[in-house]
Amino acid sequence: MLIRMEFAKGAPLKFLSHLDLMRTFQRIFRRAALPLAYSQGFNPHPKIAFSPALPVGAASQCEYLDVELDAQMSGDEILTRMNRQLPEGLEIKKIKEVSQPADALNAIINRAEYTVYFQTKLSEAEVAQYLEELLKREEIIIEKRSKKGIKKKNIRPGIYKLNCQQETAGMCIDMVVQTGSDGNVRPEQILDFLRNECNLAITEARITRTGLYVYADGHYKTPLEVVA
């Protein structure tokens, strides 16, 4: 059976890398004595697949993973076993059995929603003006460093929404950006551009991913809503 899970990764684990998160879940599944299905071949590994990686330093209200089990189990039994093993900062929110075959999470998820809180001396109207001017640009060029050197990339086509509002915790920007197998725009790239190119003073930024979606034909659906 194939299970799709929605889970939250809270502030206590925001500096846990994607690779370490994968290892953490493998330990949780083993300690929960779930009958994991394994791949064939010389080096068998559990059949677990995750949604697009969360930036290190960010928390999330809704991450997803698919895990294949070798035996039928009820969702309640899976939840009960896992909840006994979860570390602080991880919460399983929903579980759904998925008909096989199912498209991979990385292949179908193409939108990510983030909320960014930060401190600034500017007013809401002033920050909104910066964001409006940013969205009017045809290009937003960033530099990506890799082993092959520095590569320039235009991230403007992958920015779909930028809104701001003043709240008691500070200034808040809500953004929807591209994610998944066709490319990723990360919130810190937008923040760095605002700091460096627009001279927007931003300090103490706190990033939370608030949604992952499958966007098609003008509609947003969660990875749990698109499967039978």
Question: Topology as H/E string?
Answer: EHEEHEHEHEEEEHEE
Overall radius of gyration: 19 Å
The chain-level mean pLDDT equals: 93
Compute the number of strand runs.
11
Oligomer: single chain
Low-confidence stretches: none
Main beta sheet: strand number and arrangement?
A: 9 strands, mixed
- Strand fraction band? 35-45%
Q: What structural class do helix, strand and pairing data support?
A: alpha+beta
Helical residues, percent: 10-25%
InterPro entries: DUF2344 (IPR018768)
Organism: Metallumcola ferriviriculae
Domain DUF2344: 3-187
Protein name: TIGR03936 family radical SAM-associated protein
Structure report:
The chain starts with a strand and ends in a 7-residue tail after the last strand. It is an alpha+beta fold. The protein is 22% helix and 38% strand. The protein is built from five helices and eleven strands. The model has no long low-confidence stretch (mean pLDDT 93). The strands form two sheets. Strands 1, 2, 3, 4, 5, 8, 9, 10 and 11 form a nine-stranded mixed beta sheet that branches. A two-stranded antiparallel sheet has the order 6-7. The longest helix is centred in the first third of the chain and has 14 residues, at 18-31. It is elongated, with a radius of gyration of 19 Å.
Secondary-structure map:
Layout: E1 2-9, H1 18-31, E2 48-50, E3 59-68, H2 75-83, E4 90-98, H3 105-108, E5 111-119, H4 124-136, E6 141-146, E7 149-154, E8 159-167, E9 170-178, H5 187-196, E10 203-216, E11 219-221
Parallel strand pairs: 3-10
Antiparallel strand pairs: 1-3, 1-4, 2-3, 5-9, 5-10, 6-7, 8-9, 10-11
